[in-house]
Every structure is written in C-alpha cells, then in structure tokens.
Amino acid sequence: MDNMAVDLSITDNPLSIPEHHLFEMAARVNKKRGFLFVSKVLGKHIPVHPLKPLLASGLLAFEYAEQKTGRPLKDKKDILKGFLSENHSDIQAAYQTLQAQRFTLPEAPLVIGFAETATALGHGVYDCMENASYVHTTREQISDTEPAITFVEEHSHATDQVCYAEHHVLDNQCPIILVDDELTTGKTVLNIIRDIQSKYPRKEYAVLSLLDWRTEAHRQAFSAAERELGITISTAALLSGRISFRGEPLSDSIHNYRPKLQGSHVCRTDIDLSGFFTSVTYQPETAPKEAGPFPYVKETGRFGLTPADRVSVHEACQKAAHHIEDFRRGNKTLVLGTGELMYVPMKIAAELSGAVFYQSTTRSPIHPAAREGYAVQNGYSFMNPEDESIRHFVYNLPDEGYDEVFLCFEKAVSDESLQPIFDIFKEKGMSHIHIVTISGRA
Questions:
Q1: What pLDDT, on a 0 to 100 scale, did the predictor assign at position 285?
Q2: Distance between CA atoms of 357 and 332, rounded to whole angstroms?
Q3: Comparing C-alpha atoms, which of 197, 192, 180, 185 is closest to residue 231?
Q4: Nearest-CA neighbor of 121 among 340, 361, 422?
Q5: What is the rounded distance in angstroms from the CA atom of residue 326 to the CA atom of residue 344?
C-alpha cells in the first residue's frame, strides 16, 4: 500500500458536498484496479445511519430531475442539510422532506440499479419518482431461466451480470436510467446499453452515479456510442473529477480476514419475515413451465417493481421492522445485509428505534489496515451461507461496538454455514445474534 498513490482533482461538485462526506480510499485486492473509493454513504463497506443512503439516492434523483425538466425542486437544501448532518433528528427530518417531494417525469422511466453495490442506491432513486419502474441486475444464476440482459463489469471481482426483468418491462420505448455508485471508465455502462439496444432498442438513456471519474477519452466514448447507436446518454453525479493511479495493484490474499479468537458465548435468535413479503414463484416467459418456485421475494426488485409497488414495499419493511422490535436486546444495533440484499434490510433498519447502524457484506476483497484516514480498518471473510462457492467479506466491525446484530438473508441457510460468521461476531463482542430470513424455503 505504501507504494501506491491516487491523485484526485475535482471538476464538478453541483451541491458543494465536501468530498470527505462521500468517500475514503483503500487498496483493492484486484489486478485490474488497485484502488477503491470506499463510499461513506452507501452502507456497504462502512456502517452508516440507515437513512443516509436513501438521502444520497434522493439527491442524485433530484439532480437528474432538475436536469431533465429544467426546473429546480424545492426543499433540496433541507435534504442536503440532513444528508451532511450526523444528528439523528436532522437526518430523519430530511428523509421526511424527501418522501414528500416525489416527482413525476414527463416520460415514465425504467430505473436499473447495478449489483451488487448499487442495488439499494438504484431502488432509492426509483423511490423518488412517482411513475418509475425498477429492476436491479444480479449475479444470481437461476437455473432454466434466460436473462433479459447480459453484460460484463470488466473491473469487478465478479464480472458477469444479468438482468431477469420480464419481456414487457424492457420491450418499450421508455427512457432507461442506469444507477451505479461510481463511474470510472464507463465501460460497464456502455456494455449494458449495447446489450439492451441489440434486443430492446430505444432512444434515451441516463446514467446516475455518486462519483464520476471518467477522463475526456471516456466521455468521448459515450459520445461515439450515442452517434453509433442513434441514442442520447445523459449523466448526473454528485461529484466529478479526474484520477490517476501510481503503483502496483495488490494480487495476493490478505492474511487477517479470519477471526483470531472464538470469543464468549452468544445468544442466537431466528426471525422469519416471510409472512411480511411477497414470495416469488418466478416463472418467466422464457423458462420451461415445469420449473418450480424460487426462494426469492418480490420486494428486492430483482425481478422488477412497478410504480404501484412502491407503497407495498415500504409497508412490508415497516411491518417487518415492527416485528423485529420485539427481539431487540441491545442499545447499539447493527443490521447487516448480505451481498445484493441491501435495500430491504436498510429500510427495515431505518424503521427501528434507537442507535441503529446499517451495512452489508460484499464480494470485494479489500486490503485492511488500522491506520488513521484509511477506509477499511479491519476485514473478515467467510463463504456465503446462501452459496458456499462464493466468498464474502465484511469490513469495519468495531471491537465491542455493537450489542447485537441482525444478519439478513433472502433465503434460508444452514446452521453449519453460519458458524464462521458467528465466530467473527463473537470476537467483536456481539452478545446477541439474530438470523433474519425474508423468504421461505423453496
């Protein structure tokens, strides 16, 4: 890490957000890209107030809407004030203001959030638009099911992505809004646009990201794609600039991901939330009729949400949170999503009372270092209990920082697969572990 350096220059900051509110830097264990902008507002690698990512989504949606309509949206300053605050009352007031400011665009768009990091960010953008539909891409492989979209995220640790939206969701002329946490080269965006255009051609795309680090050459590639495909691609970001990297990317596994101690005894609770959510017996038009049900829920957005679904998703998370309150055993609580499952646990966390923090596990291997100003102070790895062929990581767990954790899964998992995570939580002094499942068994 000491032989790496990233130089930054900011070129556009429309809301005058100090950059330290948006990200910190870390070294990535990836030969393709040696560094990572670790977001402080996504709820992925760094724990956050659960409303912060939703406010970030709102500000991004506002930037796009104002660009699209040419009209300023009221109360944006109040929302920004809450976004920049660390005071719970300010944050909550800003979110209430945001919820009252949903807008309708001239043409009903389809919002697509990128897995895994931007599934909640995209969902939050959809939340702000009265007439939008939503779906997120996924790395889930569903047997006997043909995805509607396939593309490659070239710089990622897991590159192949698909989208299982139904045919009618894409077979139209509606504008598509692609949402990601960061644009570095824009290649991933162009990859998905080309695939959509080859199957469901249309005229208008927009790309929304918290950070936009594209060079002039990368921006010219967008312009070339517009001319080649006969489309328009507009962009909006909270912060734009230029970056240059010096040094050699890390390629070796990092040694201190696993817990060193077993720790003390913990209490475990299993919480089944399947009664609050809508089971998905996923039978797409391209799948054989004999295909059975899949253990997913509709509210995640993996298979698509309509404008009419917005209220029901909110109510489901609200009711689930009310149920979870009965299981609370601590004064300081962590709600931990897993992989692509970000939005539903985040919304549940936002409805809980008291000191609640939210973050999610990830596939991304990042180098941890306990040094001031570095984004990833510690990290632990384990095999994903939902798919034990995939390694997951969790970062920035403070010693004795939480009394309890609510670990959220979409699908039911085995006790044996949970043991490595239990060992991590034990070492970190969490005395109560709640295993939360939002869908039933297949």
A1: 44
A2: 8
A3: 197
A4: 340
A5: 18
Res 54 pLDDT > 80: yes
> Residues 131-168: pLDDT tens digits?
999 999 998 877 767 888 888 766 554 468 899 888 88
Name the helix (H) or strand (E) containing 118.
none
Question: What are the C-alpha distances in Å from 222 to residues 112, 198, 217, 265, 285?
Answer: 18, 17, 9, 55, 33
- The closest alpha carbon to 133, from 248, 304, 293, 19, belongs to 304
C-alpha–C-alpha distance, residues 305 and 134, integer Å = 5
Is domain 255-287+308-437 annotated with CATH 1.10.10? Answer: no
DSSP summary character for residue 257? G
Q: State the DSSP string of 178-235.
A: EEEEEESS-HHHHHHHHHHHHHS--SEEEEEEEEE---HHHHHHHHHHHHHHT-EEEE
Ranges of each domain in the chain: 255-287+308-437
Question: Can you name the residues that pair with 150 across neighbouring β-strands?
Answer: 162
How far is the C-alpha of 236 from the C-alpha of 413, rounded, in Å?
39
* Residues 6 or more apart whose Cβ sits within 8 Å of residue 119: 113, 136, 300, 301, 340, 341, 342, 343
Half-sphere exposure (Cβ direction) of 32: Cα atoms closer than 13 Å:
11
Query: Is the pTM higher than 0.70?
Result: yes
The residue behind tokens 């894409």 is 170
| 346 CB-side CA count, 13 A | 32
What is 330-367 written as a DSSP string? -SEEEEEEBTTB-HHHHHHHHHS-SEEEEEE-BS--B-
- Average pLDDT estimate for 181-204: 95
